[in-house]
Amino acid sequence: MGILSHLSILHLLGAALVFCQYEDYDFDDEYGGEPDHQPPYYFNPNIQVEVPRFPFPVECAKECFCPPAFPLSMYCDHRKLKTIPNIPSHVQQLYLQNNNIEAVPAGPFTNVTFIREINLSYNNIKFHMIDHGVFAKLSNLVQLHLQHNELEDFPFPLPSSLERLLLGFNKISRLPGNAMEGLPNMTMLDLCNNLLDDSVFKEKPFSNMKNLMQLNLCNNKLQTMPPDLPPSLRHLSLENNSISHIPENYFNRLPQIIALRMSHNNLQNIPHNAFNLSNLLELNLGHNKLKQVFYIPRSLQHLYIENNEIENINVTVMCPTLDPLNIKQLTYIRVDQNKLTSPISTYAFFCFPLIRTIYYGEQNVTASRPTQLRTPVFRRFLTPEEFQEAEDNHETLNQETEEDHEAEDSYFHPYY
Fold it and tell me: What SUPFAM superfamilies does the record point to (predicted)?
């Protein structure tokens, strides 16, 4: 009995310590109200910068919240802040999004040594209100979020350690030639929803970014394909511009492209071998003015050419030869809102034996009203029982399903 009594006392003491550790933190107060729908930004704890050991509780700005479980992070988001609070030296992740911050002075960052991520998105920051060199001094900074602000210019200088820079939804209209110099580690740059036009390429701003893998230029004012992009590029987003032409052999300098998104442009003709790329997996050319199809590379899996002016899909153009040892990987085609009057030739299934879905939807054969082919959604590899079930559920005669648009709905998101 004596041993059991001692064990009971030890258990009670342990429970009291755990309770005391958290009793001062009201998690309901800190995270009450509507949840933040922004995608989370995760860092691998195995690669965090080595910091000096410090006793708990750690220092935290009074305007912010520093969770005991994440002692290297400081959460100051959604607090109607107008200024940046002083940042303790040990902080590695700083979250200041969704506030009313207008300036980024050097003062709060004076003692910051180990910081790796700063999120200043959804504020009111202007370029001239950022102290010169404030970011450049942060030698461990890897990720910087400045989307949804009032920036008129590219926020340089920046530290050479930077890998991901998000500048979408600003008012940036120019890219000085030296703005992106000294960024050898940059792998992802998001410039969507700005005011960039073709003149920004005169100084070849991206040519020296040897490790750049993702470039987002959607929703700008581009009329031509951006020249002098680095050959390391794998993801290129050019949606919602006014590009009307792809130069012959343009992609010869970009052999590693995996995903290309050019929907909502003014493309009319595509050079036959424009996309002869060995790594291309996704190609989105929807909402253009295309009248003809083009060569499909072996690697391509998802093709989107909806909402164009295509009257006939010539499978021979898409697949001029058959090679049983190197079959084409195409599995999904979306061709709705074109001018097709008949389904794709069955020869397509010899050229593309892995095709699972062709989404025909409605076709714009006449200007007065859209029409439907006999099978709005064609699916392969259904057993007779599955096909009958689909017929009974009107699945093949209904609108597209979530599965049909799974790839399209996964926007070329900068936050992954």
Answer: L domain-like
Q: Which residues make Cβ contacts (< 8 Å) with residue 115, sequence separation at least 6?
A: 87, 91, 92, 93, 94, 109, 138, 140, 141
Residues 321-349: tens digit of each pLDDT: 998 889 999 999 999 999 999 999 989 99
Residue 282 to residues 89, 298, 349, 399, 403: CA-CA distances in angstroms?
44, 12, 19, 23, 16
What are the tens digits of pLDDT across the range 98-112? 999 999 999 999 999
Give Cβ neighbours of residue 90 (< 8 Å, ≥ 6 apart): 51, 52, 54, 58, 59, 71, 72, 114
pTM of the model: 0.80
Closest CA to 258 of 381, 89, 412, 384: 412
The letter for the amino acid at 10 is: L
The answer to whether residues 331 and 354 touch, using CB atoms and an 8 Å cutoff, is yes
Tokens 């032409």 map to which residue? 245
Q: Which residue's entry shows tokens 């009319």?
A: 268
